[in-house]
């Protein structure tokens, strides 16, 4: 993974620790991944903001403005979706995040619990309406507003698609 700009980064005991005082701190994969894909991340936050990014999209867990709700921005359109009482995660405890970006649906699981699953995202409409459409992007883990995020593991798997 590579830094997208200057912020606190430390590797310790097999983990990556990142902290940023604004909302611009991201560690991005150096490889681009093709849709569909599955992202498995084991991470923890000391307070707020574990953010997952792919394309123009983001998933906000423990967002500093409202820890309870889950915010997801579409990977192509950036359109924001809000899901009531689905975004809170424990602080100072490693969690397993699974983000599945399929051609027909998107799903997010935290510690095995489905927090969101749906098929009305803009990116899905693009894949359904254009059989030749393909999409690739890097994946990023982001922090914000003074939170410290510790990443224990990350696996990105390209799934079989078209």
Structure, briefly:
The protein has 162 residues and is mostly beta strands.
Write the layout of secondary structure elements.
Elements: E1 2-3, E2 8-12, E3 15-19, E4 25-28, E5 33-34, E6 37-45, E7 50-54, E8 57-61, E9 70-73, E10 80-83, E11 95-101, E12 106-110, E13 113-118, H1 122-129, E14 136-137, E15 139-143, E16 148-158
Antiparallel strand pairs: 1-4, 2-3, 3-16, 4-15, 5-14, 6-11, 6-16, 7-8, 7-15, 8-9, 9-10, 11-12, 12-13
Briefly note the CATH topology name. Jelly Rolls
How many independent structural domains? 1
Question: Helix count, per DSSP?
Answer: 1
The CA-CA distance between the termini, in Å, is: 27 Å
Strand order, main sheet: write it out: 1-4-15-7-8-9-10
Gyration radius (Cα, Å) is: 15 Å
- Strand content bin: over 45%
* CATH H-level superfamily: Exo-inulinase, domain 1
The shape, in one word, is globular
Find the count of extended strands (DSSP E, 2+ residues).
16
Any idea what the CATH architecture is?
Answer: Sandwich
Largest sheet: 7 strands, antiparallel
As a percent range, the share of helical residues equals under 10%
Would you state the CATH class?
Answer: Mainly Beta
**Runs with pLDDT <50, length 5+?**
none
User: Strand pairing plus helix content: what structural class?
Assistant: mainly beta
Mean pLDDT metric: 94
